[in-house]
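Sync notes, pocket subgroup
Present: LS, DG
LS reminded everyone that the earlier model was apo-only. Rerun requested with fructose -6-phosphate included. Inputs:
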Amino acid sequence: MCGIVGYVGYRKAYPIIISGLKRLEYRGYDSAGVALYDGKIKIYKKKGKVSELEKLTKDKDTEGTIGMGHTRWATHGAPSDENSHPHVSNSGNFSIIHNGIIENYSTLKKELLGRGYTFNSATDTEVLVNFIEDIYENNEIDATEAVRIALNNVIGAYGIVVMCKAEPEKLIVARRSSPIAIGVGEGEFIIASDATPIVEHTKDVVYLNDNEIAVITKEGYKVLNLKNESQTPYIHTIEMELEALEKGGYDHFMLKEIFEQPRSIADSIRGRIDPENKKVWLGGLVDVRKELAQAKRFIFVACGTSWHAGLVGEYLFEEHIRIPVEVEYASEFRYRNPVIQEGDIVIAISQSGETADTLAAINLAKERGALVLGICNVVGSSISRATHAGVYTHAGPEIGVASTKAFTAQVSVLTMMALFIADLKGKLTPKSRSIIPEMLQVPEKVRHIVNQSDKIKEIAATFKDSPNCLYLGRGSNFPVALEGALKLKEISYIHAEGYPAAEMKHGPIALIDENMPVIFIATKDESYEKIVSNIEEVAARKGRVVAIVTEGDTAVRNIAEFVIEIPEIDPSLMPLLSVIPLQILSYHIAVMRNCNVDQPRNLAKSVTVE
Ligand code: F6R
């Protein structure tokens, strides 16, 4: 999604903005631009990567200690130089960069056209900047007031930064449903759409709330709401380290993040498990213990990989708490008039904490009276603030667009939540309790699997040119199959589907021939014998079987073309292990196909629009 970086201070703004935009590249984008003030406002923008923008500005004047930069992910209007941000108002007095969507832009545009305004782009953003100008021109007010009045009249989502030629020493920043963080340094401020461009300059950050405007000069800043009431900002100290945002010797962030999983899982469970007394302690849920003990049903809302984690959570909650669970795509839940009853608890799962559909699902669930909990990775994110209580995953920044370590951290948290709530309800069986100390073995077992990367690479070489791939699993390995298929399709552009293995004979078996790779997750659990039969069925039709099996397995080895062995563990912890070879396989296939692994085409890291 789009990215924002702004700078006000004593240093040259351009290099700070460019390096900030590069930090935001992981979010996915198709064009980039900057505006700089140094006596006059200079604007440079270009379709393509930030490096294209750098080429454009190579011999240009990039002086100035105030500026703003943007990476655009097209919504209204195709990727092009004209549609790139910043956009400038007709008189040239206002420039703007914008994340989000102005939903009533066509009505506003019609009015502005009627008043003689002209437009150079197809964007909603250019409408907004002219709307601000129109208000400014027709009232004796300053730029901040014009922005405030305009924002009171727009419908939609925005994170914006505005520069005004007539008031050039300030940046005017605002948000609604699209995050804005302000890094507070010594005599300087760095504004960004997430904290990653800020950490190398300062750890002190103010997150704007919805419907807030900040006016920032190098002397200081003030925050107002849309009613023009002064707000008291809260300065958070961010814990993110710069190294976490760098590749650290790996070829890609995705590979680094796959290899980081022993640590990210350990960080997610650290301090939350008491192996001796077989207890789980989740501080973030302490205030809602009573509601959890009385819960009658859980509804998970999430998108993409986080939704797959929710599906694993369904198995975990039903197994350990013996309580009904529903797993909903947030985008469907929000528009489906869902039935929420007394005793329902909604759990939103999100790595970024900014996914628009998940946020909307949370708001709907709250309106209907549900207690809403969050499982988020990004501290201070919109979802973590919108939920009543929750648990952070502590996976650390995930930069690769394809989610890997966030998934295993989410599943780790869901496992602990299931055990914690089962205990609160007095339903924790000795068998479930025995999983608590076993969780501590997960990081080492994951390390053992990532060390097989080279072997998995050989399998990847065999299948790199396949146009299709099928992933099959049973029980909680079924969502792992879905996740494996998603990983492959999003980074290698190979068509892949995940299915419950037993469903194969109800349709997908028609696809099996000697060219079809079929990845089975066939680890030892109560449905093992059944999945061995499913493997036989595929092998009988000459499908090319790759099987993830438990160490020491012999039955599958005799049928499959390739096996990847993973350590033995309690079946309810198995998704934490069985997903790892699938991540590695997708990674190697994508690299062999020369795909942009960290920034796959058309994808955005945090999807802040519907
Ligand atoms: C897939 C992927 C996406 C996200 C989805 C939800 O690798 O990254 O499917 O999982 O967009 O994002 P979050 O978890 O940030 O809400």
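DG: Residues 303-306, 350-352, 355, 358, 402-403, 486, 490, 606-607 surround fructose -6-phosphate (CB under 6 Å).
LS: The first helix runs from residue 13 to 23.
Action: DG to write up.
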